[in-house]
Protein backbone atom coordinates (compact mmCIF):
# COMPACT_ATOMS: atom_id res chain seq x y z
CA UNK A 1 0.00 0.00 0.00
CA UNK A 2 2.90 2.32 0.87
CA UNK A 3 4.64 1.53 -2.39
CA UNK A 4 1.47 2.23 -4.26
CA UNK A 5 1.13 5.57 -2.53
CA UNK A 6 4.77 6.38 -3.22
CA UNK A 7 4.31 5.49 -6.86
CA UNK A 8 1.40 7.89 -7.19
CA UNK A 9 3.28 10.67 -5.44
CA UNK A 10 6.36 10.12 -7.49
CA UNK A 11 4.60 10.75 -10.73
CA UNK A 12 5.93 13.90 -12.37
CA UNK A 13 3.66 16.95 -12.34
CA UNK A 14 3.46 16.90 -16.10
CA UNK A 15 2.00 13.40 -16.01
CA UNK A 16 -0.58 14.44 -13.42
CA UNK A 17 -1.50 17.48 -15.49
CA UNK A 18 -1.76 15.28 -18.55
CA UNK A 19 -4.10 12.98 -16.67
CA UNK A 20 -6.20 15.90 -15.51
CA UNK A 21 -6.34 17.45 -18.96
CA UNK A 22 -7.35 14.09 -20.38
CA UNK A 23 -10.33 13.79 -18.04
CA UNK A 24 -11.52 17.41 -18.29
CA UNK A 25 -12.96 17.20 -21.86
CA UNK A 26 -15.13 14.29 -20.79
CA UNK A 27 -16.54 16.25 -17.87
CA UNK A 28 -16.95 19.35 -20.06
CA UNK A 29 -18.82 17.40 -22.74
CA UNK A 30 -21.14 15.95 -20.13
CA UNK A 31 -21.85 19.44 -18.82
CA UNK A 32 -22.57 20.65 -22.35
CA UNK A 33 -24.94 17.75 -22.92
CA UNK A 34 -26.77 18.51 -19.69
CA UNK A 35 -27.00 22.18 -20.63
CA UNK A 36 -28.34 21.34 -24.11
CA UNK A 37 -30.82 18.98 -22.52
CA UNK A 38 -32.07 21.75 -20.26
CA UNK A 39 -32.31 24.18 -23.18
CA UNK A 40 -34.21 21.64 -25.28
CA UNK A 41 -36.54 20.91 -22.38
CA UNK A 42 -37.14 24.64 -21.89
CA UNK A 43 -37.99 25.02 -25.60
CA UNK A 44 -40.49 22.20 -25.22
CA UNK A 45 -42.01 23.83 -22.19
CA UNK A 46 -42.18 27.13 -24.01
CA UNK A 47 -44.21 25.27 -26.60
CA UNK A 48 -42.22 26.37 -29.66
CA UNK A 49 -39.34 24.54 -31.35
CA UNK A 50 -37.73 25.95 -34.49
CA UNK A 51 -37.93 23.58 -37.46
CA UNK A 52 -34.45 23.92 -38.93
CA UNK A 53 -32.55 21.63 -41.31
CA UNK A 54 -31.84 19.11 -38.55
CA UNK A 55 -35.50 18.81 -37.58
CA UNK A 56 -37.45 15.72 -38.61
CA UNK A 57 -40.25 17.86 -40.11
CA UNK A 58 -38.00 20.17 -42.12
CA UNK A 59 -38.72 18.41 -45.42
CA UNK A 60 -42.46 18.43 -44.76
CA UNK A 61 -42.54 22.14 -43.89
CA UNK A 62 -40.54 22.96 -47.03
CA UNK A 63 -43.23 21.20 -49.05
CA UNK A 64 -45.90 23.13 -47.15
CA UNK A 65 -44.33 26.48 -47.93
CA UNK A 66 -43.85 25.83 -51.64
CA UNK A 67 -47.31 24.37 -52.02
CA UNK A 68 -49.03 27.16 -50.09
CA UNK A 69 -47.16 29.81 -52.04
CA UNK A 70 -48.49 28.46 -55.36
CA UNK A 71 -51.99 27.82 -54.02
CA UNK A 72 -52.46 31.30 -52.55
CA UNK A 73 -50.87 32.87 -55.63
CA UNK A 74 -53.69 31.34 -57.66
CA UNK A 75 -56.27 33.29 -55.63
CA UNK A 76 -54.15 36.45 -55.87
CA UNK A 77 -53.96 36.18 -59.67
CA UNK A 78 -57.63 35.21 -60.00
CA UNK A 79 -59.45 37.02 -57.17
CA UNK A 80 -62.93 35.83 -56.27
CA UNK A 81 -66.00 38.00 -56.00
CA UNK A 82 -68.04 38.18 -52.80
CA UNK A 83 -71.29 37.99 -54.77
CA UNK A 84 -70.53 35.08 -57.13
CA UNK A 85 -70.33 32.05 -54.85
CA UNK A 86 -71.69 28.81 -56.31
CA UNK A 87 -72.54 25.53 -54.55
CA UNK A 88 -69.94 23.78 -56.69
CA UNK A 89 -67.21 25.91 -55.05
CA UNK A 90 -67.51 23.78 -51.92
CA UNK A 91 -66.53 20.65 -53.90
CA UNK A 92 -63.69 22.19 -55.91
CA UNK A 93 -60.21 20.68 -55.53
CA UNK A 94 -57.18 22.51 -56.88
CA UNK A 95 -54.32 20.10 -57.75
CA UNK A 96 -50.82 21.47 -58.22
CA UNK A 97 -47.64 19.48 -58.90
CA UNK A 98 -44.32 20.66 -57.47
CA UNK A 99 -40.94 19.47 -58.68
CA UNK A 100 -38.46 22.07 -57.43
CA UNK A 101 -38.00 22.98 -53.78
CA UNK A 102 -34.89 24.14 -51.86
CA UNK A 103 -31.78 22.25 -52.94
CA UNK A 104 -31.04 21.15 -49.38
CA UNK A 105 -34.00 18.79 -49.58
CA UNK A 106 -34.01 15.95 -52.11
CA UNK A 107 -37.46 15.07 -53.40
CA UNK A 108 -38.89 13.52 -56.54
CA UNK A 109 -41.85 15.88 -56.58
CA UNK A 110 -45.17 16.00 -54.77
CA UNK A 111 -48.76 17.12 -55.21
CA UNK A 112 -50.52 19.77 -53.15
CA UNK A 113 -54.32 19.80 -53.12
CA UNK A 114 -56.39 22.78 -52.01
CA UNK A 115 -59.99 22.08 -51.04
CA UNK A 116 -62.83 24.59 -51.55
CA UNK A 117 -60.26 27.25 -52.48
CA UNK A 118 -62.81 29.92 -53.66
CA UNK A 119 -64.87 29.48 -50.48
CA UNK A 120 -61.92 30.01 -48.15
CA UNK A 121 -60.64 32.90 -50.29
CA UNK A 122 -64.00 34.65 -49.85
CA UNK A 123 -63.96 33.90 -46.13
CA UNK A 124 -60.52 35.47 -45.74
CA UNK A 125 -61.80 38.49 -47.65
CA UNK A 126 -64.85 38.50 -45.36
CA UNK A 127 -62.51 38.71 -42.36
CA UNK A 128 -60.71 41.68 -43.90
CA UNK A 129 -57.55 39.67 -44.68
CA UNK A 130 -55.34 40.34 -47.69
CA UNK A 131 -54.16 37.18 -49.48
CA UNK A 132 -50.79 38.84 -50.14
CA UNK A 133 -50.27 39.21 -46.37
CA UNK A 134 -51.60 35.69 -45.81
CA UNK A 135 -49.12 34.31 -48.33
CA UNK A 136 -46.22 36.33 -46.91
CA UNK A 137 -46.84 35.04 -43.38
CA UNK A 138 -47.12 31.40 -44.46
CA UNK A 139 -44.19 31.33 -46.90
CA UNK A 140 -41.59 33.68 -45.41
CA UNK A 141 -37.97 32.52 -45.27
CA UNK A 142 -38.02 32.15 -41.49
CA UNK A 143 -38.62 28.62 -40.23
CA UNK A 144 -41.94 27.37 -38.97
CA UNK A 145 -42.18 26.67 -35.27
CA UNK A 146 -43.31 23.31 -33.96
CA UNK A 147 -45.92 23.64 -31.26
CA UNK A 148 -45.45 21.05 -28.52
CA UNK A 149 -48.92 20.09 -27.35
CA UNK A 150 -50.36 17.74 -24.77
CA UNK A 151 -53.20 16.96 -27.15
CA UNK A 152 -54.34 13.34 -27.25
CA UNK A 153 -55.03 13.53 -30.99
CA UNK A 154 -51.35 12.94 -31.89
CA UNK A 155 -51.69 15.69 -34.49
CA UNK A 156 -48.72 17.80 -35.50
CA UNK A 157 -48.97 21.53 -34.84
CA UNK A 158 -46.93 24.12 -36.70
CA UNK A 159 -46.92 27.86 -36.16
CA UNK A 160 -45.84 30.56 -38.59
CA UNK A 161 -42.80 32.52 -37.47
CA UNK A 162 -44.95 35.56 -36.63
CA UNK A 163 -47.15 33.22 -34.53
CA UNK A 164 -50.29 34.40 -36.30
CA UNK A 165 -51.42 31.15 -37.98
CA UNK A 166 -51.54 27.53 -36.90
CA UNK A 167 -51.08 24.63 -39.31
CA UNK A 168 -52.40 21.37 -37.90
CA UNK A 169 -52.44 17.89 -39.42
CA UNK A 170 -55.85 16.23 -39.38
CA UNK A 171 -57.32 12.80 -39.99
CA UNK A 172 -59.23 12.21 -43.20
CA UNK A 173 -62.55 11.83 -41.38
CA UNK A 174 -62.02 15.17 -39.62
CA UNK A 175 -61.35 16.90 -42.95
CA UNK A 176 -64.45 15.27 -44.43
CA UNK A 177 -66.49 16.48 -41.44
CA UNK A 178 -65.24 20.07 -41.86
CA UNK A 179 -65.85 20.21 -45.60
CA UNK A 180 -69.29 18.62 -45.23
CA UNK A 181 -70.33 21.25 -42.68
CA UNK A 182 -68.37 24.17 -44.13
CA UNK A 183 -71.46 25.92 -45.44
CA UNK A 184 -73.15 25.71 -42.02
CA UNK A 185 -69.99 26.96 -40.33
CA UNK A 186 -69.76 30.00 -42.63
CA UNK A 187 -73.48 30.71 -42.29
CA UNK A 188 -73.10 30.79 -38.51
CA UNK A 189 -70.16 33.21 -38.70
CA UNK A 190 -72.09 35.42 -41.10
CA UNK A 191 -75.10 35.50 -38.82
CA UNK A 192 -72.88 36.19 -35.80
CA UNK A 193 -69.81 37.98 -37.20
CA UNK A 194 -68.31 38.47 -33.72
CA UNK A 195 -68.43 34.75 -32.96
CA UNK A 196 -65.52 33.38 -30.91
CA UNK A 197 -65.30 30.10 -32.86
CA UNK A 198 -61.80 29.52 -34.25
CA UNK A 199 -61.46 30.80 -37.82
CA UNK A 200 -60.52 28.09 -40.36
CA UNK A 201 -58.71 29.66 -43.33
CA UNK A 202 -57.89 26.71 -45.60
CA UNK A 203 -57.88 22.92 -46.03
CA UNK A 204 -55.04 21.16 -47.88
CA UNK A 205 -53.37 17.80 -48.46
CA UNK A 206 -49.92 16.70 -49.61
CA UNK A 207 -49.16 13.54 -51.58
CA UNK A 208 -45.45 12.71 -51.71
CA UNK A 209 -43.79 9.59 -53.22
CA UNK A 210 -43.62 6.63 -50.84
CA UNK A 211 -45.37 8.60 -48.10
CA UNK A 212 -48.88 8.52 -46.71
CA UNK A 213 -51.23 11.27 -47.84
CA UNK A 214 -51.36 13.99 -45.19
CA UNK A 215 -54.19 16.46 -44.60
CA UNK A 216 -53.82 19.74 -42.75
CA UNK A 217 -55.77 22.89 -41.98
CA UNK A 218 -54.77 26.51 -41.41
CA UNK A 219 -56.45 28.53 -38.67
CA UNK A 220 -55.96 31.81 -36.89
CA UNK A 221 -54.22 31.72 -33.52
CA UNK A 222 -56.55 32.82 -30.73
CA UNK A 223 -53.52 33.90 -28.67
CA UNK A 224 -52.21 36.46 -31.16
CA UNK A 225 -50.26 38.57 -30.42
CA UNK A 226 -49.02 36.47 -27.52
CA UNK A 227 -46.03 38.45 -26.19
CA UNK A 228 -47.87 40.17 -23.32
CA UNK A 229 -50.12 37.28 -22.31
CA UNK A 230 -49.07 35.99 -18.90
CA UNK A 231 -51.70 33.29 -18.25
CA UNK A 232 -53.30 30.81 -20.65
CA UNK A 233 -56.13 28.37 -19.93
CA UNK A 234 -57.79 25.53 -21.85
CA UNK A 235 -61.29 25.13 -20.40
CA UNK A 236 -63.71 22.24 -20.97
CA UNK A 237 -66.02 22.77 -17.99
CA UNK A 238 -65.10 19.55 -16.15
CA UNK A 239 -62.61 18.28 -13.55
CA UNK A 240 -61.33 14.80 -14.45
CA UNK A 241 -57.79 15.18 -15.77
CA UNK A 242 -58.20 18.94 -16.04
CA UNK A 243 -55.10 20.20 -14.22
CA UNK A 244 -51.52 20.98 -15.20
CA UNK A 245 -48.31 20.66 -13.19
CA UNK A 246 -46.77 24.15 -12.83
CA UNK A 247 -43.11 24.50 -13.80
CA UNK A 248 -40.57 25.57 -11.22
CA UNK A 249 -37.35 26.02 -13.21
CA UNK A 250 -38.14 29.25 -15.07
CA UNK A 251 -40.61 32.08 -14.70
CA UNK A 252 -40.55 32.56 -18.49
CA UNK A 253 -41.94 29.13 -19.30
CA UNK A 254 -45.26 29.29 -21.15
CA UNK A 255 -47.78 26.79 -19.79
CA UNK A 256 -51.42 26.28 -20.81
CA UNK A 257 -53.38 25.57 -17.64
CA UNK A 258 -56.73 23.81 -17.34
CA UNK A 259 -60.00 24.01 -15.44
CA UNK A 260 -58.79 22.99 -12.00
CA UNK A 261 -55.90 25.46 -12.22
CA UNK A 262 -58.31 28.37 -12.75
CA UNK A 263 -59.46 28.11 -9.15
CA UNK A 264 -61.44 31.05 -7.81
CA UNK A 265 -60.37 33.50 -10.52
CA UNK A 266 -63.00 35.54 -12.35
CA UNK A 267 -63.05 37.21 -15.75
CA UNK A 268 -63.96 40.85 -15.16
CA UNK A 269 -65.38 42.39 -18.33
CA UNK A 270 -68.25 44.52 -16.95
CA UNK A 271 -70.62 45.55 -19.77
CA UNK A 272 -69.26 42.83 -22.08
CA UNK A 273 -70.34 39.99 -19.78
CA UNK A 274 -73.87 39.77 -21.17
CA UNK A 275 -72.50 39.70 -24.71
CA UNK A 276 -69.96 36.94 -23.92
CA UNK A 277 -72.53 34.74 -22.17
CA UNK A 278 -74.92 35.05 -25.09
CA UNK A 279 -72.22 34.49 -27.72
CA UNK A 280 -70.89 31.37 -25.97
CA UNK A 281 -74.46 30.07 -25.83
CA UNK A 282 -74.96 30.74 -29.55
CA UNK A 283 -71.66 29.12 -30.52
CA UNK A 284 -72.16 26.03 -28.34
CA UNK A 285 -75.71 25.62 -29.63
CA UNK A 286 -74.30 25.55 -33.13
CA UNK A 287 -71.78 22.86 -32.15
CA UNK A 288 -74.53 20.91 -30.38
CA UNK A 289 -76.52 20.86 -33.63
CA UNK A 290 -73.46 19.27 -35.30
CA UNK A 291 -73.21 16.69 -32.44
CA UNK A 292 -69.73 18.00 -31.55
CA UNK A 293 -68.17 17.58 -28.10
CA UNK A 294 -64.77 17.88 -26.41
CA UNK A 295 -64.12 21.40 -27.72
CA UNK A 296 -62.23 23.87 -25.54
CA UNK A 297 -62.64 27.49 -24.55
CA UNK A 298 -59.23 29.17 -24.63
CA UNK A 299 -58.74 32.06 -22.21
CA UNK A 300 -55.64 34.25 -22.16
CA UNK A 301 -54.97 37.05 -19.67
CA UNK A 302 -52.96 40.16 -20.53
CA UNK A 303 -52.65 42.96 -17.95
CA UNK A 304 -53.66 46.41 -19.19
CA UNK A 305 -51.33 49.19 -18.14
CA UNK A 306 -52.41 52.76 -17.48
CA UNK A 307 -51.43 53.98 -20.95
CA UNK A 308 -53.35 51.10 -22.57
CA UNK A 309 -56.46 51.95 -20.57
CA UNK A 310 -56.20 55.64 -21.42
CA UNK A 311 -55.81 55.02 -25.15
CA UNK A 312 -58.63 52.48 -25.04
CA UNK A 313 -60.96 55.18 -23.71
CA UNK A 314 -59.98 58.04 -26.03
CA UNK A 315 -62.59 59.51 -28.30
CA UNK A 316 -60.57 58.78 -31.43
CA UNK A 317 -60.23 55.13 -30.46
CA UNK A 318 -63.91 54.87 -29.60
CA UNK A 319 -64.75 56.25 -33.02
CA UNK A 320 -62.48 53.70 -34.70
CA UNK A 321 -63.85 50.85 -32.59
CA UNK A 322 -67.45 51.82 -33.27
CA UNK A 323 -66.89 52.05 -37.01
CA UNK A 324 -65.14 48.66 -36.94
CA UNK A 325 -67.99 47.11 -34.97
CA UNK A 326 -70.96 48.65 -36.76
CA UNK A 327 -69.97 49.69 -40.26
CA UNK A 328 -69.81 46.26 -41.91
CA UNK A 329 -66.07 45.70 -41.81
CA UNK A 330 -67.14 42.04 -41.74
CA UNK A 331 -69.90 42.06 -44.39
CA UNK A 332 -72.22 39.23 -45.29
CA UNK A 333 -71.41 37.60 -48.63
CA UNK A 334 -74.80 38.54 -50.08
CA UNK A 335 -74.68 42.14 -48.85
CA UNK A 336 -72.62 44.69 -50.81
CA UNK A 337 -69.99 46.66 -48.93
CA UNK A 338 -70.93 50.11 -47.77
CA UNK A 339 -69.24 52.72 -49.90
CA UNK A 340 -66.62 54.71 -48.04
CA UNK A 341 -67.54 57.96 -49.81
CA UNK A 342 -71.14 58.24 -48.61
CA UNK A 343 -70.85 61.85 -47.51
CA UNK A 344 -74.48 62.13 -46.43
CA UNK A 345 -74.22 59.47 -43.71
CA UNK A 346 -70.83 60.79 -42.63
CA UNK A 347 -72.20 64.31 -42.41
CA UNK A 348 -75.18 63.18 -40.35
CA UNK A 349 -72.83 61.37 -37.94
CA UNK A 350 -70.66 64.46 -37.53
CA UNK A 351 -73.70 66.69 -37.09
CA UNK A 352 -75.11 64.38 -34.43
CA UNK A 353 -71.92 64.42 -32.34
CA UNK A 354 -71.39 68.12 -32.99
CA UNK A 355 -74.90 68.91 -31.79
CA UNK A 356 -74.23 67.08 -28.52
CA UNK A 357 -70.81 68.57 -27.76
CA UNK A 358 -70.22 71.66 -29.94
CA UNK A 359 -67.70 73.38 -27.66
CA UNK A 360 -65.29 70.44 -27.63
CA UNK A 361 -65.68 69.07 -31.13
CA UNK A 362 -66.36 71.98 -33.47
CA UNK A 363 -62.66 72.82 -34.13
CA UNK A 364 -61.93 69.24 -35.21
CA UNK A 365 -64.97 67.53 -36.73
CA UNK A 366 -65.48 68.36 -40.39
CA UNK A 367 -67.42 66.43 -43.07
CA UNK A 368 -64.29 66.16 -45.22
CA UNK A 369 -62.13 64.72 -42.41
CA UNK A 370 -62.39 60.97 -41.67
CA UNK A 371 -62.64 60.10 -37.94
CA UNK A 372 -59.46 58.01 -38.20
CA UNK A 373 -57.45 61.21 -38.71
CA UNK A 374 -58.54 62.63 -35.38
CA UNK A 375 -56.28 60.44 -33.30
CA UNK A 376 -53.24 61.63 -35.28
CA UNK A 377 -53.69 65.18 -34.02
CA UNK A 378 -51.72 66.05 -30.87
CA UNK A 379 -53.91 69.10 -30.32
CA UNK A 380 -57.04 66.98 -30.50
CA UNK A 381 -55.67 64.59 -27.85
CA UNK A 382 -54.61 67.44 -25.57
CA UNK A 383 -57.53 69.86 -26.02
CA UNK A 384 -60.44 67.52 -26.69
CA UNK A 385 -59.87 63.98 -25.44
CA UNK A 386 -58.43 64.74 -22.00
CA UNK A 387 -61.06 67.34 -20.97
CA UNK A 388 -63.83 65.22 -22.45
CA UNK A 389 -62.85 62.12 -20.46
CA UNK A 390 -62.75 64.21 -17.30
CA UNK A 391 -66.46 64.96 -17.65
CA UNK A 392 -67.96 61.92 -19.45
CA UNK A 393 -67.82 58.20 -18.77
CA UNK A 394 -66.54 55.70 -21.32
CA UNK A 395 -69.91 53.93 -21.43
CA UNK A 396 -71.74 57.19 -22.15
CA UNK A 397 -69.35 58.09 -24.95
CA UNK A 398 -69.57 54.62 -26.48
CA UNK A 399 -73.36 54.91 -26.55
CA UNK A 400 -73.21 58.39 -28.09
CA UNK A 401 -70.76 57.46 -30.83
CA UNK A 402 -72.53 54.20 -31.48
CA UNK A 403 -75.86 55.94 -32.04
CA UNK A 404 -74.19 58.59 -34.16
CA UNK A 405 -72.55 56.10 -36.49
CA UNK A 406 -75.47 53.69 -36.53
CA UNK A 407 -76.92 55.50 -39.53
CA UNK A 408 -73.99 54.36 -41.68
CA UNK A 409 -74.86 50.66 -41.53
CA UNK A 410 -77.10 49.02 -44.19
CA UNK A 411 -80.81 49.27 -43.65
CA UNK A 412 -81.26 45.48 -43.54
CA UNK A 413 -78.83 45.26 -40.58
CA UNK A 414 -80.78 47.66 -38.37
CA UNK A 415 -83.34 46.98 -35.65
CA UNK A 416 -84.23 43.29 -35.22
CA UNK A 417 -81.90 42.10 -37.98
CA UNK A 418 -78.96 43.94 -36.47
CA UNK A 419 -79.78 42.63 -33.00
CA UNK A 420 -79.64 39.10 -34.41
CA UNK A 421 -76.06 39.81 -35.50
CA UNK A 422 -75.14 40.05 -31.82
CA UNK A 423 -72.21 42.42 -32.17
CA UNK A 424 -70.16 44.33 -29.63
CA UNK A 425 -67.61 47.12 -29.38
CA UNK A 426 -64.50 45.52 -30.83
CA UNK A 427 -61.18 46.57 -29.28
CA UNK A 428 -58.65 48.28 -31.53
CA UNK A 429 -56.22 45.36 -31.50
CA UNK A 430 -54.51 43.04 -33.99
CA UNK A 431 -56.99 40.26 -33.15
CA UNK A 432 -60.26 42.06 -32.31
CA UNK A 433 -62.66 39.12 -32.79
CA UNK A 434 -60.93 37.12 -30.05
CA UNK A 435 -60.15 39.88 -27.55
CA UNK A 436 -62.31 41.50 -24.87
CA UNK A 437 -61.08 44.40 -22.76
CA UNK A 438 -61.94 44.61 -19.08
CA UNK A 439 -60.92 47.33 -16.62
CA UNK A 440 -57.63 45.61 -15.71
CA UNK A 441 -57.06 42.86 -18.27
CA UNK A 442 -57.35 42.16 -21.96
CA UNK A 443 -58.83 38.68 -22.36
CA UNK A 444 -58.19 36.45 -25.38
CA UNK A 445 -61.08 34.02 -25.86
CA UNK A 446 -61.86 31.45 -28.54
CA UNK A 447 -63.45 28.04 -28.98
CA UNK A 448 -61.19 25.45 -30.63
CA UNK A 449 -61.04 21.69 -31.44
CA UNK A 450 -64.34 21.34 -33.29
CA UNK A 451 -63.89 17.87 -34.81
CA UNK A 452 -64.93 15.35 -32.12
CA UNK A 453 -68.38 14.01 -33.01
CA UNK A 454 -70.47 12.14 -30.43
CA UNK A 455 -70.48 8.82 -32.28
CA UNK A 456 -71.48 5.36 -31.01
CA UNK A 457 -67.89 4.83 -29.90
CA UNK A 458 -68.02 8.03 -27.86
CA UNK A 459 -71.30 6.91 -26.31
CA UNK A 460 -69.59 3.74 -25.10
CA UNK A 461 -66.71 5.84 -23.76
CA UNK A 462 -69.22 8.02 -21.93
CA UNK A 463 -70.79 4.91 -20.34
CA UNK A 464 -67.41 3.55 -19.26
CA UNK A 465 -66.30 6.88 -17.75
CA UNK A 466 -69.60 7.28 -15.90
CA UNK A 467 -68.77 4.00 -14.12
CA UNK A 468 -65.09 4.76 -13.53
CA UNK A 469 -65.58 8.39 -12.46
CA UNK A 470 -68.88 8.05 -10.67
CA UNK A 471 -70.08 11.42 -9.38
CA UNK A 472 -67.32 13.34 -11.20
CA UNK A 473 -67.38 15.59 -14.27
CA UNK A 474 -65.51 14.29 -17.34
CA UNK A 475 -65.27 15.53 -20.92
CA UNK A 476 -67.01 12.78 -22.91
CA UNK A 477 -70.72 13.53 -22.45
CA UNK A 478 -73.58 14.02 -24.86
CA UNK A 479 -73.55 17.28 -26.88
CA UNK A 480 -76.40 19.18 -25.20
CA UNK A 481 -74.99 18.59 -21.72
CA UNK A 482 -71.47 19.49 -22.87
CA UNK A 483 -72.72 22.81 -24.29
CA UNK A 484 -74.78 23.58 -21.20
CA UNK A 485 -71.87 22.82 -18.87
CA UNK A 486 -69.45 25.11 -20.71
CA UNK A 487 -72.03 27.93 -20.65
CA UNK A 488 -72.43 27.42 -16.90
CA UNK A 489 -68.65 27.67 -16.45
CA UNK A 490 -68.55 31.00 -18.31
CA UNK A 491 -71.49 32.33 -16.32
CA UNK A 492 -69.98 31.38 -12.97
CA UNK A 493 -66.51 32.75 -13.81
CA UNK A 494 -67.37 36.15 -15.34
CA UNK A 495 -68.56 39.39 -13.79
TrEMBL record:
Nucleotide-binding as UniProt keyword: yes
Organism taxonomic ancestry: Eukaryota, Metazoa, Chordata, Craniata, Vertebrata
Domain PIPK: 41-494
Species assigned in the record: Pantherophis guttatus (Corn snake)
SUPFAM superfamilies: SAICAR synthase-like
Keywords assigned: ATP-binding, Kinase, Nucleotide-binding, Transferase
Superkingdom in the source lineage: Eukaryota
Gene3D superfamilies, alphabetized: 2-Layer Sandwich, Phosphatidylinositol Phosphate Kinase II Beta
The name this protein goes by in its record: Phosphatidylinositol 4-phosphate 5-kinase-like protein 1 isoform X1
Listed InterPro entries: PInositol-4-P-4/5-kinase_C_sf, PInositol-4-P-4/5-kinase_core, PInositol-4-P-5-kinase_N, PInositol-4/5-P-5/4-kinase
Keyword Disulfide bond: no
Amino acid sequence: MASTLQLKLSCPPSAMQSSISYRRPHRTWSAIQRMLGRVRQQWKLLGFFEINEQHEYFKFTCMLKEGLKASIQKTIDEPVSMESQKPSDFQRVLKQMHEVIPSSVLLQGYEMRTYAAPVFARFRQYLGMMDTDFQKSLTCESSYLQFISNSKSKADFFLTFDKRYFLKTQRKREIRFLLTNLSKYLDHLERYPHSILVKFLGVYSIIAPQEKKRYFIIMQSVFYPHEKINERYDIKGCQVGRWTEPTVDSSEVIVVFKDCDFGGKVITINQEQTWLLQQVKLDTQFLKALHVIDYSLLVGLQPLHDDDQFLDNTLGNILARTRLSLSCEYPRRNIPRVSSNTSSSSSSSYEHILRLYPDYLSPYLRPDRPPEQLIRSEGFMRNVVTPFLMQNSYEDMSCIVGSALHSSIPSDLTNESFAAQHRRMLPASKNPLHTIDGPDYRYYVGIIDLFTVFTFRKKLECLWKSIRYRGQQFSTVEPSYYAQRLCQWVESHTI
